[in-house]
């Protein structure tokens, strides 16, 4: 339960801080993994990047069951119903395990077919299908872990998910180095080593999460004997909340992937500059993610406690803090874009184009902060349809059609793609705010 003897800002920062560090760990492991695999062949790079994208996107879509679990657990905790929260958590984890077995097994069996459908290069198909088969073993643990971490956050604890990410990602980076290049007596396994490192890291991360959930030390106490007792009413609510969240992930990731394919048609330098700018900008999303987690938890718990006024204040303060943090990062993007991009590449022509993109990206930082935190607050209250609807409108109505026109009809420079992105996020912030102010979320019963 939220500590009432702390200031509102302190409560938010205590929740947001570990969530920001958790996102930082995921970014670091992605960067390190990319750098190490980048020293292998072009086929290895293509196979690992595509395989990892397929695996993590699948996990994120079905791990969105955790969005509904966060809202319901937070509501129960706020109402002082820890036993009910634990029973709901047990059922959510059980469903997650069933889903993970289905997705993991399907991915392993269909790995070769997936790569043959996506690429023509036989070497990439062979390496990619091998990589996907191995990392899909990690999906057996990753989806339940994502749901478990969402449950823990809903109870008001963001520190354990951070520790879970810390253990998994530190191991992943170390194991990447050892297994990819053959250190400490291990043979050099290349992309196979990267797959083994990633899959094993998911198992370790899940072990940390579930050790805490079964330890009986937190507000959520899982019990094996309760994990097969399903309550139809609770599961219906869980699915009703989680399906729109999963569709939102599918829409956002699918839109990014498709637009990435289109942007590649602008040429090697344009695509490389865009990719580097996206990598640099990803750092700025961490505060938005952290404050969105804080808003979701606090709104859910305050609504469970029947304190709507504090739910409103928590959202407002979270938005202000996120906008301040991301706005500051945006200022750095605007003032020092070239210097920042030089950290990512020594190809001056590419860096110059990437710097132009990053400077434009400075204008979307505050809208992203508003959209992310408001979305988190809505989901914490149980309104997952609203954020999905906004995602549908901004991706299908703005991002995809405008990028298609810019690339294939007008053949504009890549900088115009970034102005389209700015327009998308401004609209997203406006629509998310409108949905929030209409107040539908205030009357949702969970």
Characterise the protein shown here:
With 446 residues, the chain is mainly α. It folds into two domains: 1-230, no CATH class; 245-446, no CATH class. It is 81% helix and 0% strand. It has 16 helices and no strands. The protein has helices at residues 8-37, 42-63, 65-78, 82-118, 122-154, 159-181, 191-214, 232-263, 268-281, 285-304, 308-335, 337-342, 348-361, 365-381, 385-409, 415-438. It is globular, with a radius of gyration of 22 Å. The relative contact order is 0.12. The mean pLDDT is 91.
List keywords for this structure.
446 residues, mainly alpha
**Tally of DSSP β-strands:** 0
| Main sheet attributes: strand count, strand direction, barrel closure | none
Write down the domain tally: 2
N-to-C series of helices and strands: HHHHHHHHHHHHHHHH
Rounded Rg: 22 Å
Helix content: over 70%
How many helices in DSSP terms? 16
What percentage of amino acids are in beta strands? under 5%
Determine the N-to-C terminus distance: 18 Å
Structural class: mainly alpha
Q: Which descriptor suits the 3D outline? A: globular
pLDDT average, as an integer?
Answer: 91
